[in-house]
Amino acid sequence: MNDASSPVLEYWCELQCPDCATALDDLRALRAKYGDALVIQLRHFPLEKNKHAYAAAQAAEEAFVQGNGWAYTEAVLARAGELGTRGEKLLVEIAAEVGLDADEVDTALVDGRHLLVVDADQAEGKAIGVTGTPTYVIGGERLDGGKSQDGLRLRIEAIADRLLVR
Q1: CA-to-CA distance for 147 and 99, rounded, in angstroms?
Q2: Which residues pair with 40 in a beta bridge?
Q3: Mean pLDDT, rounded, of the chain
Q4: Of 14, 17, 101, 139, which is the most buried if we count CB atoms within 10 A?
Q5: Are the C-beta atoms of residues 39 and 99 closer than 8 Å to each other?
Q6: Distance between CA 6 and CA 8 in Å, rounded?
Q7: Residue 92: HSE in the Cβ half-sphere, 13 Å Cα cutoff
Q8: CA 140 to CA 149: how far, in whole Å?
Q9: H helices within the chain, ranges in order?
Q10: Are 55 and 109 in contact (CB under 8 A)?
């Protein structure tokens, strides 16, 4: 049951970030524990140091439009190191591998149809103090996972449990 009363966990992510790939284990555990009671929302925070992260964020947005955003996001994060060397060609290959219309993903990268979403996420992230990835926001609390993810899932669960009691 995904309704307006469900708490939202914003997962501020950069798709070329190895720490974000590691964080997927926590997200999977949270999905398994809460199901649809906790909405996990991907938010983009591409870092300038990773030259293909901005394109990856746009491709992920197209994947969500096509209905398979999380599978695509996880597949890209699993190959974050390879993304650094192969760039947009890899993004299109992964799209085909997870069953997306790869040509449409390629076209989205060319025509920039998702630029505004990625730019808006990045601006909002900066406004709320996101400086690195992964960062989580739940119940108005920001939890930074870029330096260490130890204990973060337990903190997220404690906040989610508190929000779900309401």
Answers
A1: 34
A2: 9
A3: 92
A4: 14
A5: no
A6: 6
A7: 13
A8: 19
A9: 18-34, 53-65, 69-78, 80-86, 88-97, 102-111, 115-127, 152-165
A10: yes
